[in-house]
Each structure stands twice: as C-alpha cells, then as structure tokens.
Automatic annotation (TrEMBL):
PROSITE patterns to which the protein is assigned, alphabetical: MFS
Entry's transmembrane regions: 12-35, 47-67, 79-103, 109-129, 136-155, 167-187, 199-220, 232-250, 270-290, 310-328, 335-352, 364-382, 488-510
Family (UniProt): Belongs to the major facilitator superfamily. EmrB family.
Species of origin: Lentilactobacillus parakefiri
Protein name per UniProt: Major facilitator superfamily transporter
Record domain Major facilitator superfamily (MFS) profile: where: 13-514
Primary location class: membrane
Length: 525
C-alpha cells in the first residue's frame, strides 16, 4: 500500500512541476495576441508595448543559469517553490498594472520566477523518478514544454476575446496556487550539493551581463532590420556581450567553485543535446511567430481560429511525449532524435511548397503535422538524453543550459528568419513594383511605405480603404502578397535546413548509450 502511495505522490509531484513549466513557457508567447487590446487599454503604440515582450524574454534568458545554480546549491525544490510563488505574485501585479511602466517591471520579475521553474523542473523530475519511470516522466515533461510553447495563440486569443487582456496574467494565479500546494506536499527535495561552496558572484554577474548584451543586441536588430550588423548600436552590444562571455569562461576555469563546470562542454554527447535545443528554438519555435502572422495577417483567421489550427502542431506533444519516454528505454534516443529532426525538415519544405497567394489551412496542414511530430518526439527525448551521464550535482545546470540554448535559439531564429523574410520581401517589391502602371513618385512613396512597414504590416497598407480606390490597387495587392509569399517560403526553407543540420550534428556528436550515474537522492542526505 505504501509503495502505491509513493508512486501516486510522484505523479502528483510531476503534475505540480508540469504546471510550473507550462505557465513559465506560456508567458513567453501568450502576450503576442493581446498586444492590440493592450495598445487600446494603455493608449499607446505597439513600439512602446514591445517591452512587455522583451522584458520577459530578456530576464528569462539571463536568469536561467543563475536559478539553476542556486537550485543545485541550496535545494532544487526550495528554489523552484520560491520561483513559483514569485511568478504568481508578479502575475497578479501584471493583471492589475495601472501603467505600462509597472507592467514592464513586473514582467521582468515574473520572468525570474519563470526561469526558476523552467530551469529546475527537469532536474527535479529526474531526481524524483527512477529507472523506466524517469524516462516516461521526462517524456511527459517534454510534452508539456512542446504544448506550452505552441499554445500561446489559442489560450491567449480565447482569454483576451472573452475576458480582456488582464486575464492572460490572472489565469496564472489559481493554477499557480494549486501548483505551490502540490509542490510543498509532494515534490521531494534534492540535496544541497554546494551549500558549503562559495557563491560564484563574478560568474553570475558576467553570465547575466554577457547574455543580456547579446540578446538585447539581437532584439535591437530585429526592431531595426535596415540597420547594418556593423552599426555600433547593434555590433557594439553583440560584440561586447561575446567578449564578456569569453571573459566569463576564463573566470570559470580559474575559480574554486565555478557557476558552470566548463568541462561539461568537452563532452560530445552534451554538445549534441544543446545543439538540438538550439535547433528546436531557432527552427521550430521561431517559425511559429511567422506562421501565426501568415494565418492572421494574410489568410485572415482570428487569434482563436489560428490557435485552433495550430493544434495540428502542438497536439502531437501530448500524444507523443509519453510514447517517446517509453521508447527511450528500449531504443536509441540518438537515432529517434535524428529521424524526428529530418522528418521536421521535410515538413518545413512541404510548408514552403504550399505557400501561395491562395494558401489556406488545407494546404498547410501536412507540413504542420510533420513539424508537430518532430517537436513532440524530440523535446521529451532531449530531456532524457541531456540527463544521461550527468552527475547529480550537475543536473540543475544541465537543465538550465538546455533551456538557455532553446531560448537563445528562439531569439536568434526570430531575428535571422525575419531578416531573410525582409530581404526577399524587399527584393520582390523592388523588382516588380516598377512594372505597375502608376506615377513614379507615387510608386516610390508607396514602396517606401511598404518596406518600412515590413512583411507583417505591408498587407494592411496594400488593402487599406484609401488604397482600394486607386486604379492600380489590384495589381499592387498582388505584388505585395507575392512578395510576402516569397519571404515566407524562404523562411520555411531556412527553418527546414536548420532542423536538418541540427539532426546531422546530433548524429555526429551524440552517443547511442551513455554510462548512467546513480541518482538515488537518499544516499546523499
């Protein structure tokens, strides 16, 4: 009877950790669909609202490794629990925020809690489960990661449409309180492996500043696509961040109790797993932003309609996560990951082939299904593979690093794919707008407006009421749509190449079998 209770407690603990992961990752994307409503509520512009997104993304990425290390040192349950409490409190403040400034600040605080939950969840699951159950549990956690990353448009769209934008934050409060209670009573604490060690304040500071500079530089470039990479406002941040991160590595190799054991990066298997994490972020997750824009801005689906159709991608995570966890104990995780990444690449190529001025969900869904299968298989397998051969005291940091590379990959992907789309869009306008029958001055002015608006907003200009009365409106709209389609096709092809290269890298670096490390928590107490 006691054994059954213990098993039940483990699965209840998994539900608590899963809730934390779901909330933390959902809040990376859920705000996107609420921006139009928030702009009206705060009487401000989309540009000013950008920091509601960026504050969370930046702080989340910067604090992942720090929270991982604190969990390894002082107990992962303890840091996970306080992170969840902080997340819930900040969520309530977000919903009540009287001004945009307060909302930006509380979003940053919320991100610290989200980072703590996300960075420690995988290590907590690994230490709360043993044997085959661990693979299944990590598979389920991978499912939750996959679903939360892709379900933002659906959940956010529904909440905003029916309850207003504060609901996207308030919804975290009751679920967060439930998760806090379950964590207190059911999640088993891990040893404080480094409680007698000195906190590596220099490493924490350097890693935070370095990551901040690089990611903020990419965000600046995303917001100003026509600024050159060598522009000091972009290159200064990115180059400065890289220099700081190089200094961080130098420091870590010399301090007695480093934040990160740099020797971890000498393991080919571990390098293979973080390469896959980066490819997932820069290929699949980054592409979701462009797919959402295609469905809403060009096809014309509402936020909720878009979210429902994107279940074609996210629903596979629910189905395949547990399956992948079970299969991981029988078959090679390496080759299942490689095969799934190649399948995802084929899905992107199908998406690129299907994009046309008359594209609808009917043409898109086959490629979306393959993307969903790849995401649904790789995420849970990656969690399990990443923990293989990892010492108990390193598990929190390994979990944090996988999440850092996944999030960093998403940021790099959004910027890189955006630049590819912008280039293709602009090249098409430059090549075909001179053929339209309109005065040169008018053509130049409209083309400049379309380029400045970019692929996402150019559709609004071309199909505006003012433009509809122009004699060349139909021809112009056709050129704009074709320009956008060229950009989207290039984005899909690039994403496909990213995930395929990631799969090839995993094939070369990852091992079929990694010597396991005994993870019995009780022996360390």
């Amino acid at each position: 009877m006691m054994k059954k209770q213990t098993q039940a407690a483990r699965w209840i603990a998994l539900s608590a950790m899963g809730l934390g992961v779901f909330m933390g990752l959902l809040d990376v994307t859920v705000v996107n669909v609420a921006l139009p409503t928030m702009a009206k509520g705060f009487n401000t512009t989309f540009t000013n609202l950008q920091w509601v997104l960026n504050a969370y993304t930046l702080v989340y990425a910067v604090t992942l490794m720090i929270m991982s290390k604190l969990g390894d040192m002082y107990g992962r349950k303890k840091i996970f629990l306080w992170s969840m409490i902080l997340f819930v409190i900040a969520s309530a403040i977000n919903g009540m925020a009287p001004s945009l400034f307060i909302l930006d600040i509380s979003r940053g605080i919320q991100a610290v809690g989200g980072a703590g939950m996300m960075s420690l969840s995988m290590a907590l699951v690994a230490s709360n489960f043993d044997g085959k159950e661990r693979g299944l549990a990590l598979g389920i956690l991978g499912s939750i990661i996959g679903v939360s990353s892709a379900s933002g448009p659906l959940i956010g769209g529904y909440l905003v449409e029916h309850f207003g934008w504060p609901a996207i934050f308030y919804v975290n409060v009751p679920f967060g309180i439930l998760a806090v209670i379950l964590t207190i009573f059911y999640v088993r604490e891990t040893p404080s492996y480094g409680k007698d060690h000195k906190i590596d304040l220099a490493g924490m500071f350097l890693s935070a500043i370095g990551l901040f500079a690089v990611i903020y530089g990419l965000i600046v470039k995303e917001g100003h696509p026509h600024w050159a990479w060598v522009d000091g406002r972009v290159s200064g941040l990115i180059a400065g961040g890289i220099v700081i991160m190089a200094f961080f590595v130098w420091v870590e190799m010399r301090v007695e109790d480093p934040m990160i054991d740099i020797k971890m990066f000498k393991r080919p298997h571990f390098l293979g797993t973080i390469l896959i994490a980066f490819a997932l972020g820069s290929g699949i997750y980054a592409y979701n932003a462009f797919l959402t824009a295609l469905m809403q801005n060009y096809i014309g689906y509402s936020a909720v309609q878009t979210g429902v159709r994107q279940l074609t991608i996210s629903a596979w995570s629910l189905v395949l996560g547990p399956v992948a966890g079970i299969l991981s104990s029988r078959y090679s995780k390496k080759w299942m990951i490689v095969g799934s990444m190649l399948l995802g690449g084929i899905g992107f190529f199908l998406m690129a082939h299907s994009i046309s001025p008359l594209v609808t969900f009917v043409e898109l869904w086959p490629g979306m299904v393959l993307m969903g299968i790849a995401n649904g298989m790789v995420n849970p397998l990656l969690n399990t593979a990443g923990m293989e051969g990892t010492l108990p005291q390193e598990m929190g940091m390994v979990s944090g690093l996988l999440n850092v590379f996944r999030q960093f990959g998403t940021t790099v992907g959004v910027v890189g794919l955006g630049l590819i789309q912008d280039t293709q869009y602009e090249n098409h306008l430059n090549a075909h707008m001179p053929d339209l029958e309109m005065p040169t001055k008018v053509m130049t002015a409209i083309k400049e407006a379309l380029i400045n608006a970019g692929p996402f907003s150019g559709h609004t200009i071309a199909f505006s009421n003012r433009m509809a009365h122009m004699p060349f409106a139909g021809s112009l709209q056709k050129v704009v749509i074709q320009a956008y389609d060229n950009g989207m096709a290039a984005v899909a092809v690039t994403s496909g190449m990213i995930v395929i290269v990631g799969g090839i890298g995993a094939a070369l670096l990852m091992k079929n079998h990694v010597d396991s490390v005994h993870l019995d928590v009780n022996q360390h107490k």
